[in-house]
């Protein structure tokens, strides 16, 4: 559905401008415009209907992943709980099945997005190649830079993932288990743990914000590079198209 909507958005201006240039039948021009608008509206409604069921599907995937995770835990050796490497892997598994917004649950939608992006690139690349191979080369180079920046960003985020998981685990234990279980209250009052727990939460919060700041800096760097790529790519493309139009080699519809 998203690919069809992309195709409609790509071809609609060209077809409408072409009909305005060559057709003298006003009723036919109106019919073409209405046809594109109706098709866009219908597929937008279909896309909206599909999105309404995504939340239910995400929760079903989450329950299935939780079931398989606990099934695997029941079959594991008890002594693996004392293995640091195993605990790190377990924390990673728990982090991707924590809720319906994690990467593990969204794997199917992420894969679908990749397929749509590849097909959209092929569709747009075909149109651009028809105008000039130079524009296609510029488009491919821009995508390669964006792809490399995406890999760099993922590696940087993965480098702080394990530490973030450990902090989240401790914060969750204090904020949910200790805070909501009244049986801990007696020991906290008798042994004066309130100040210690408060200091611990502050230290964990400080570490969490530092990791978050690192992640935001990585994302900002990638966003700046992507913006520069877009400016250079679109600048070259529009400069080329303007020169072609000024020379009379392409018309308004092709532009």
Shape: elongated
Unreliable stretches, pLDDT < 50, 5 or more residues? Answer: none
What is the helix fraction of residues, given as a range?
over 70%
- Compressed to H and E, one letter per element, the order equals HHHHHHHH
CA distance, first residue to last residue: 26 Å
Number of helices: 8
User: What is the number of E strands?
Assistant: 0
Main sheet summary: none
Question: What features would you describe in this structure?
Answer:
- Helices cover 85% and strands 0% of the residues.
- It is built from 8 helices and no strands.
- Helix 3 packs across helix 6.
- The radius of gyration is 27 Å and the shape is elongated.
- It starts with a helix and ends in a 9-residue tail after the last helix.
- 1% of the residues are buried.
- The model has no long low-confidence stretch (mean pLDDT 76).
Please render the helix and strand layout as text.
Blueprint (H helix, E strand, L loop, with lengths): L1 H21 L3 H50 L8 H13 L10 H25 L1 H27 L1 H20 L2 H9 L2 H53 L9
Helix pairs in contact: 1-2, 1-4, 3-6, 4-5, 5-8, 6-8
């Amino acid at each position: 559905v998203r690919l069809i909507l992309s195709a409609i958005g790509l071809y609609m201006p060209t077809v409408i401008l072409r009909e305005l240039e060559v057709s003298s039948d006003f009723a036919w021009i109106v019919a073409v415009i209405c046809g594109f608008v109706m098709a866009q509206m219908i597929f937008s409604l279909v896309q909206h209907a599909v999105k309404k069921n995504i939340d239910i599907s995400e929760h079903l995937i989450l329950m299935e992943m939780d079931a398989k995770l606990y099934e695997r835990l029941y079959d594991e050796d008890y002594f693996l709980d004392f293995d640091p490497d195993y605990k790190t892997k377990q924390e990673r598994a728990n982090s991707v099945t924590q809720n319906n917004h994690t990467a593990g649950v969204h794997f199917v939608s992420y894969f679908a997005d990749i397929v749509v992006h590849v097909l959209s690139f092929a569709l747009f690349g075909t149109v651009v190649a028809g105008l000039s191979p130079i524009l296609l080369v510029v488009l491919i180079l821009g995508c390669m830079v964006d792809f490399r920046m995406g890999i760099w960003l993922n590696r940087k985020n993965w480098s702080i993932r394990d530490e973030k998981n450990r902090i989240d685990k401790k914060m969750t234990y204090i904020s949910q288990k200790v805070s909501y279980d009244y049986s801990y209250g007696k020991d906290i009052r008798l042994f004066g743990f309130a100040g210690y727990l408060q200091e611990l939460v502050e230290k964990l919060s400080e570490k969490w914000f530092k990791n978050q700041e690192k992640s935001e800096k990585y994302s900002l760097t990638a966003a700046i590079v992507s913006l520069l790529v877009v400016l250079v790519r679109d600048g070259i493309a529009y400069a080329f198209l303007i020169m072609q139009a000024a020379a009379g080699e392409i018309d308004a519809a092709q532009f």
